[in-house]
Amino acid sequence: MKAQASLEFMTTYGWALLVVITAIGAIVYFGFLDVNTLQKDYCDTIPELPCTEYSLNQTQVKLQLRNGFERDITVNSIRVSNDDTGIFTVNCNAPQVIFISQNANFTCTFASPAFTQSSKSTVNILINYTRVGGTASHVAQGALLTTVR
User: Fold this and answer.
1) What pTM did the predictor assign?
2) Which of 68, 69, 88, 130 is found 20 to 30 A from 99 (Cα to Cα)?
3) What is the rounded CA–CA span in Å between residue 44 and residue 27?
């Protein structure tokens, strides 16, 4: 009698568990629960050169960088790339001097559309800069995750 009761218990709850797993699978498969849409937007670079504003459309990345160094810097170049498509920017408005505690705006343009509109995309940022009056070149790496507008 105990064996029959435990078998009925396992069968009943087994079917219920199977239905729940199938429902979750269908929700994920059909895109109702997209993990990328749940991620928070961010722009992450080195602490001394943070992104204060950013936006992304199909052909451009716009960045606003703040100089947190103790000296003025010259941003010599910015390279932005998309690992998903292999496309990288060919034009950013650099070189540009950023004074201490000031912001500078950069617009990086892709040669062809690199992103799908309304999707979340990640781009890699490579900033080449020198301190004003210095000769050594420095590189800052970063990443940007946001929705394509």
Assistant:
1) 0.76
2) 88
3) 31
